[in-house]
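Reopening: structure tokens for the coenzyme A complex, inputs below.
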Amino acid sequence: MYIKTKRLMIRKFEFKDWQAVYEYTSDMNVMKYIPEGVFTDEDAIEFVNRNIGDKADKFPVLLIDENIVIGHIFFSKCFGEHTYEIGWVFNPNYYNKGYASEAAKAVLEYGFEKMKIHRIVATCQPQNIPSYRVMEKIGMRREGYFKKCIPNGNEWWDEYYYAILEEEWK
Ligand SMILES: CC(C)(COP(=O)(O)OP(=O)(O)OC[C@H]1O[C@@H](n2cnc3c(N)ncnc32)[C@H](O)[C@@H]1OP(=O)(O)O)[C@@H](O)C(=O)NCCC(=O)NCCS
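Re-run output (same inputs, fresh job):
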């Protein structure tokens, strides 16, 4: 994947990106709702290495002007060839500037127009307001609210389920 927007570039991972990834994935507030949890430096290196080759499903998002990694987008097949799942994790130094929405919208465009995908889904916990705001800002609809579906220590998390169809994108 290689996408450019007004302010951002989304490309494949390069090994040198691991330090930028470590900076935000080692933050417990950032990783609170991410199943993998807080990363060590070794986790960040392994994560980047796993996403360098053709099987990559996570892609770094860079500020074009500064040429720095400010987060990553997850984009992966789910339920066969026709449906993809999208997700996002960004560095808190760059929150609330519209970067995640700008990157995610560009990935939807790429998915529907270049890859001819039929349906793109995303999930998050109802407490994760910034995440579902991104889903709504890019035109996704809330399709489901699953109660107590994810085990998290001694408690259960609820989950929102969002989607957008190719025909809705148009
Ligand atoms: C979710 C995440 C990627 C959003 O990144 P971002 O670049 O700040 O996103 P954007 O700026 O495009 O949009 C965020 C929106 O949430 C809104 N928002 C943020 N905090 C909010 C709050 N507490 N209450 C209401 N709205 C809030 C912002 O105002 C903005 O909406 P607006 O443009 O309508 O004002 C970022 O918060 C993140 O990395 N979180 C940690 C990782 C994570 O939880 N990922 C999702 C897992 S499902």
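Residues 112 and 170 are 9 Å apart (CA to CA). The radius of gyration is 15 Å. Marking as resolved unless the reporter disagrees.
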